[in-house]
Write a structure and sequence with these properties.
By secondary structure, this protein is an all-alpha fold. It has nine helices and no strands.
Length: 181
């Protein structure tokens, strides 16, 4: 329990960083998008690496915690869009979602992450665990979402693409190994 608390405090550091530096941001709404979105994506990648790295570093017992924090930052990202970005204008939300493909990729990903977070309790996970495999689709969609949201791709977006490709490749390789046994 103590370790989970310490990890939770550590996982709140990006939020503290965001709040401390928000006053200096030129475009606060964009700044919130960037910090919450990047943190959600990076935590999702770390969460998915748990099963791949299990033999080297076993942090499987923290995978759920990491996944829920990934959802937490995705939720903050979503709230930023709804509250600050569109000011609760549902017509504008619909328009932005329809006109900007990266927004609907983010919306689809958020809906799946919401479902996964709701069904992450022991009782519901037993019933819906097969649906949690959709997280790999979410990884692809969020990597595309993050790349499309930028006007120019930088080393950061390319590194997200590379990391997603490596994670998916290793996961497929692991699955093949277990199926061949």
């Amino acid at each position: 329990m103590k370790k989970k608390f310490i990890i939770s405090i550590f996982l709140l550091l990006p939020l503290a960083y965001l709040l401390i530096n928000l006053k200096d941001a030129i475009d606060p709404i964009k700044y919130i998008y960037i910090i919450t979105g990047r943190t959600a994506l990076i935590l999702l990648m770390i969460t998915l690496s748990a099963s791949i790295l299990r033999r080297v570093v076993n942090f499987m017992k923290y995978r759920k915690l990491l996944g829920l924090f990934s959802f937490f930052y995705a939720f903050l990202h979503f709230l930023n869009f709804i509250i600050l970005g569109t000011q609760f204008d549902l017509a504008l939300v619909a328009k932005e979602t329809y006109e900007k493909p990266f927004v609907y990729l983010g919306m689809i990903s958020f809906a799946v992450l919401l479902f996964m977070s709701i069904t992450s309790t022991k009782k519901l996970f037993v019933k819906y665990h097969k649906w949690h495999r959709l997280v790999y689709i979410v990884l692809i969609l969020l990597t595309i979402h993050a790349s499309m949201a930028q006007k120019v791709l930088s080393w950061r977006e390319y590194s997200y693409m590379l990391a997603a490709f490596i994670l998916l490749s290793l996961r497929m390789d692991l699955k093949k190994r277990f199926q061949s046994r």
